[in-house]
């Protein structure tokens, strides 16, 4: 009986690890964050090998083939002071998946429309108005909101990658920033089938998902118990 329990525990560990890697955590999910020790920490998304967190999104929501409001943004209560601003700052030019590699190429652009309706435009040749407002922290010091993303209507079918960080400001003038996060990469699908899109995502270099420590402890403990029982037999 004990042997069966141990086998089940080990199978659970490996199944969890495999499923976590195969199922791209963060798909269509919000960017959850918390402000701790002077830094905005990203709590969701897909960890990338070279750093940062990946989120998947798809243009074509709510009857608009060229827009989406995913991912949304969550800042845990107590992170900021009421009235502080959670914002973003774009870090690099737009990259396009050509079926083989990600390249800063083409004439298409992706826009981020912030909560004040200011527009940040990202193309392969540059960034216009790189800083935007996501929302003001509420009385509990948190944020939960969505902004809009849009692609130009003549864009080529493919996947598009935008990189930005979350940052904090003391007020809506955006003159006094006080923190920033690791890079957030959003891969937008514009008309690709699921297999082709997932190929583009995998090419970004997804880190392996570690087996949770609790599972390792459980499995190793049960394994030691079985060995002990065999030694006594």
What does this 3D model show about the protein?
- A hairpin with a 5-residue loop joins β10 (109-113) and β11.
- With 233 residues, the chain is α+β, with helices and mostly antiparallel strands.
- Helix content is 21%, strand content 36%.
- The protein has helices at residues 2-22, 194-202, 213-232, and strands at 31-36, 39-42, 46-47, 53-58, 67-68, 73-75, 85-90, 95-97, 102-103, 109-113, 119-123, 126-128, 131-136, 143-145, 148-151, 158-169, 177-180, 184-190.
Radius of gyration (Å): 21 Å
Mean pLDDT: 84
Briefly note the structural class of the backbone. Answer: alpha+beta
Count of helical segments? 3
Helix content: 10-25%
- Identify low-pLDDT runs: 4-23, 210-220, 222-227
| Anisotropy-based shape | globular
Topology:
Layout: H1 2-22, E1 31-36, E2 39-42, E3 46-47, E4 53-58, E5 67-68, E6 73-75, E7 85-90, E8 95-97, E9 102-103, E10 109-113, E11 119-123, E12 126-128, E13 131-136, E14 143-145, E15 148-151, E16 158-169, E17 177-180, E18 184-190, H2 194-202, H3 213-232
Parallel strand pairs: 1-6, 4-18
Antiparallel strand pairs: 1-2, 3-4, 5-15, 6-14, 7-13, 7-16, 8-9, 8-16, 10-11, 10-15, 11-12, 16-17, 16-18
Helix pairs in contact: 1-3
Which key terms come to mind for this protein?
18 strands; alpha+beta; five-stranded antiparallel sheet
Brief synopsis:
The chain is α+β, with helices and mostly antiparallel strands. It is built from 3 helices and 18 strands.
